[in-house]
Amino acid sequence: MALIVQKYGGSSVGSLDRIHQVADKIIQAKEAGHDVVVVVSAMYGETDRLIRLANALTQQPEAREFDMLIATGEQVSMALLSMALNAKQCAARSFTGHQVGIHTDGVHTNARILEVKTDIIQRELNKGNVVIVAGFQGVNAHGDITTLGRGGSDTTAVAIATAVKAHECQIYTDVAGVYTTDPHLVPEASLLPQISFEEMLEMASLGAKVLQMRSVELASKYNMPIRVLSSFADGPGTLVTFEDKIMVKRLVSGIAFSREEAILSLSGIPPHLGMEGRILSKIGDMHIEIDMIAQNMTGEDAVDFTFTVSRREFTKALKAVEELAEELHATSIKTNSKVAKISLVGIGMRSHTGVASTMFKALGDAGINIQMITTSEIKISVVIDEIHLETGVRAIHRAFELDKLPASSEQLFIE
Ligand code: ASP
Ligand code: MG
User: Which of 92, 182, 200, 269 is most buried, with most CB under 10 Å away?
Assistant: First the structure.
């Protein structure tokens, strides 16, 4: 018997049929003797529909009213789910974020949770009820409804799990868990039994959109294990947890990638003190976010400065680079707006050598030229031509035998 928080995403509550199935899953957990708090997203596509409505009405909807509108999707699904449970003789009660006491800061459409009250949730659990809470929303100090940014129901679930000291926070979605890489690109990708918070944050920041980043940050801060699992099929899913709890030691855990990158390079700059700061502040002033940076001496008196940006910033970045080339007397500019980034992530890199060489050799053998490299303690990223992305990810996946992951040696999943 344990207290668990379950979150069901938009596709899991996407139709009345699906809501019935979710109700059955919750009843299973109840019958196993657990107390259950459920967080729901809006029904699939509903938040998008509400956003379209607002934008069709006015170009600049007031932030307060916008939140008032887009928070309604979750209220629909929580009430329907509660009705479905009650109809199946399982006592349930639904609550908005405001009602249970999810207090946030005042940043409409991207608010942060400051505090979660537990008295109402506890009172309802004591009565034996399943407590259903609307995800993605809270209330600010003025009593106005706020929302937590797209995908924010994950963060609601982790915040509630932490506040009520749940055994684990289960995030039900439409995939079986977290994979070694995108299975659409690499069909042999395997399901990870476990992944560390740190690795998950790297994967999430690199575009693996299973969980909202903030939810992983919060879980990591309060040591709340998250289990990502499918509401469509049975299975243990992926446990996101602390490194020391990970039993299955792996060299690397996954490959994340992003397609929409661009690379820009200033060549032959006569070196002088402080020029890197000048380059970066100019780019920063234009509100362009830089991802990777490399600088190297190409001769006695020449330096190349290269960086990458997201492709939608390319035109802006090119303008900055053209002005900088003049100011700094660079001899030429090189750009490529059709590059992609592949990142290999794994905590095993900390204690093992040879990971980078295996990765680079795999790319070389596949005939792929690496245009830029950056590394951190648990990640190696390379920039390559976008047309080689698929081949590159597959080659690296094969080189590390990520299709043959050992199964989890322990079952933390509470039955
Ligand atoms: N319904 C919100 C969204 O679509 C929040 C969520 O689903 O997590 O972004
Ligand atoms: Mg989501």
Answer: 200
